[in-house]
Amino acid sequence: MKPASLSDGRRGPAQIWNSAPQLAQIPAITPCTLVPPRARVVVIAPHPGDEVLACGGLLQLLSSLEHPLLLISITDGSASHPGSNAWPASRLSVIRPQESAEALRRLGMPLHSLKWIRGGFRDDALAASEQPMSQFIARYLQPGDVVFTTWRNDGNDDHDAVGRASANACRQVGVRLYELPIWAWHWPLRDGAIIPWQRARKVRLNAWNVARKLHATHAFASQLVGDPTIGLAPKLAQDLLERIREPYEIVFA
């Protein structure tokens, strides 16, 4: 059974991120251990903004170590408000990449040297394009890269498809892959056994890292509001914003 997502109306206080006892037992890992010196970091985001939600703190740490960075945005995020006249796809396809650029600026990313590839794949339909997506990703990878992307079992169809496609691309090129959960942290606590705790590693963040990540998250204005006229709730719900304040990020090695 697919676990509950953050947007399906089953939210409550007993979510994995704020209740799972396993969180305290996750071993810590340093950015230097995750990424060797001078290695290029590749972040693959299903939608603009996922790079911040998944690893906005880690990006700050890796940037301070002067790792070259490639960001691949698979879609433009234009399907986030289905049926909305206030936020039609034509508007979102322009706004969401702009929001992502502002969020990266707030994180302190060196935008002058950041390489950013936009895939142009159809938002909310990536499972049907998994093979061409994998080929697309592999085209931009090179030996020695370290890749970060969404966990292939995150519970969002696009996140899952990008996780699988990235894993296939990394196998083709022979590079290291780390997966990052986003929506999975907001599953009900009873689904915590699905999390691969044995693969989890904790990257500690200081108060400044957390503050900048939260500030960056608020750059996604389109995701902080829904459309009350059609009963559409914000994508970035209060529970997610509260989780952003946690002083760590978790990767699956």
From TrEMBL:
Coiled-coil regions listed in the entry: none
Molecular function as annotated in GO: hydrolase activity, acting on carbon-nitrogen (but not peptide) bonds, in linear amides
Domain of life: Bacteria
A Pfam family it matches: PIG-L
InterPro entries for this protein: GlcNAc_PI_deacetylase-related (IPR003737), LmbE-like_dom_sf (IPR024078)
Name the UniProt record assigns to this protein: GlcNAc-PI de-N-acetylase
Organism: Pseudomonas antarctica
